[in-house]
Amino acid sequence: MEETRSLATVRPDPDAQFEALVKKIQENTHFDVGRIRAAYEMARLAHTGQFRRDGSPYVTHCIAAADISVDIGLDEDSIIAALLHDVIEDTSLTHEDIARQFGPAVADIVEGVTKLTRVQYTSKEDEQAENLRKMLMAMAKDIRVILIKIADRLHNMRTMAYQSPEKQKTKSLETMEIYAPIAHRLGMQRAKWELEDLALQYLDPDGYKEITDNLTKRMPELEAFMDSMRAKIMARLESEGVQATIFCRIKHVYSIYRKMYAQKLDMDGIFDLCAFRVIVDSIPDCYNVLGIIHDMFKPVPGRFKDYISTPKPNMYQSVHTTVIGSEGIPFEVQIRTWDMHYTAEYGVAAHWKYKMGASAGSSLREGDEDKFAWIRRLLESQQESDASDFFHNLKVDMFADDVFVFSPKGDVINLPAGATPIDFAYSIHSDIGNHMVGAKVNGRIVTYDYVLQNGDIVEIRTSKSAPGPSRDWLNTAKSGSARTKIKQWFKKERREENVQRGRDMLDEELRHNGLTLDDVMDEAVVSPLLKRFSFTCPDDLYAAIGYGGLTATRAANRLRDELKNQEPKRKTALDKVAEAAERRESQAQKKEGKAVHGILVQGLSNCLVKFSRCCTPVPGDDIMGFITRGQGVSIHRRDCANCQQLLSQPENEGRWVEVSWASKITDSYLTTIVVSAKDRSGLVMDVATVLNALNAKVHSLSARTTGINIGIVTVTLEVKDAAELRHIISRLSHVNGVSSVTRNGM
Length: 746
Ligand code: MN
Prior knowledge:
Elements: H1 14-28, H2 33-46, H3 59-71, H4 76-83, H5 87-90, H6 95-102, H7 104-118, H8 125-141, H9 143-158, H10 165-185, H11 189-203, H12 205-239, E1 244-250, H13 253-262, E2 274-280, H14 283-296, E3 298-299, E4 305-306, E5 319-324, E6 330-337, H15 338-346, H16 350-355, H17 373-384, H18 387-398, E7 402-406, E8 412-416, H19 421-428, H20 430-434, E9 436-441, E10 444-446, E11 458-462, H21 473-476, H22 480-493, H23 495-512, H24 517-520, H25 523-532, H26 538-547, H27 552-566, H28 573-592, E12 599-601, E13 609-611, E14 623-627, E15 633-637, H29 641-648, E16 656-657, E17 659-661, E18 669-678, H30 683-693, E19 697-705, E20 710-719, H31 722-733, E21 738-743
Parallel strand pairs: 2-6, 13-15
Antiparallel strand pairs: 1-2, 3-5, 4-5, 5-6, 7-8, 9-10, 9-11, 12-17, 14-15, 14-16, 18-20, 18-21, 19-20
Bound molecules: manganese (II) ion.
């Protein structure tokens, strides 16, 4: 198991506890132990006569907080500040006293921690928001304040058993709602998990016990499973020559708890209790291992996540997948490099760890440093600017995808970056958004497209007689929820207007496609679309387009496709040719026998024959017949792609008939060929010239350019037979720049 806690436990003798800490610091860092020792002396003297609830000297808590600070990788000033973190609050020492001996930086950190300590947690929402605001401000000033506060809270939670039940509940709630999310935001996964599990223990003791009891009971089975999977994966990775370290663990209690509640499952319904972590040396190895794991086990669809190419905002990187192991037990695998691993475990604090060069439990080696270029860059920028700039930038990066703003009452509203007053208004309530007539930010009137900044205080002015949202708001709003609410308003309030507007939009879109509303508003064409969206009449369709629930493009495309499907039933140029041929054929039939359109259908005489439009066969082609529903036999080329697909569908078995060309053919046949060429001016002209010279009966010719400078000329023409067609194709192939000439249906 990986998560063995190397963190110090409270010892009754403070001096011995401190010496153990000194030893740890000397083994892992180059810190000035003299300064740290002096800080301990100051704290010990200041807290003399003060005791913890468990009876131990108060300073043991300070040592423990410093110890956790070492574990999470904080710097020398932070360790000193951690030792002194309660002296301003609980003793007669002042900021000046600390500044005189340890410098203003340490004194500022201690003062910052003190301010946070004075923030009283409350379950009242507005006060809670104010607390969070203070924390964010403190964090913006010096992130070490928060990190030490997290260390402080972690130790207090570990020793919470000695507190009154009431205090246990309040502190746990605060931990769950404020400290664990902040730890998560800072990427400190390990601290976050421990805080959550400790808090859960007091917030829902029964739920916590149910899970831990069950885990204890199943531990032998789970451990056997993990051992065998680990050995299996390890053996395979070794045989593939991949150097890797595999950790496995039982998921932390709170994550199981959350899952049970979210999915309304009991403990037996939760299968993926085990998580594996494969740690490798390089990013290519990560993807290599992913491939190997997916080859060994069946991946669970939808569970693959690539946070390497797209890191989380808190800098977390890994690839995640869930696979099915032996006996059908799913388990999660996280794959990452060592530097991703440290960042995941310690988050922001990992910066100091790397700065120290090497540290506790890390396998950071000389020469590894290039892998941490991004951290070096951050540290270099720190040298050029002052520390507060560094932390400010760090803060901006961390919250890059979110902006925190305040209501006039002090509620913290979390919106996506780029959000505007419109997003803010709708996040409070749809009614506020729908009745908005103006917005103020920090007391100044702003336009609706003002981009909200962290810490802005936003005030929305509303009026009962407000005209309601305008359509521009759909573009100005950044959050999906605001846009949804705006669309809902349009849907409800403005049906008449929407119908008119939607009809105009659809008409315009159809015109782009060379169609009109009249073309498509035929019962047969429009009804599948209405049915698809559960509209009862075309007005519903227009209204939906009008309020933005359905785009005009999408509706027009569907209508156009439907029109195409219906085409065989309508009169087209092809049908007219076919009809003419039919008339001639019926006369020819009297002489020749059973042929229709020059086609003989085996076993059937005088049946309806139709040439498929997908491959337009001509005499001489190898053909086969497909019995359609109600439209006779459709004739395909044997090499037609469409025909191959129909052939592969088992339900079409028995619908194929042998067909052949009649011996004497007098008709011409329509067919289509596609000329691809390097796009150049005069291409179409040259193609047309060749066709003209060959006396080809061209029915239509169209040209288009694809994005990669390829000109495509599609020609539909009448030919006697395949030989004539081959001749035409061969001639066209010699046109300057032509790369291929193919028949359709291929
Ligand atoms: Mn404390």
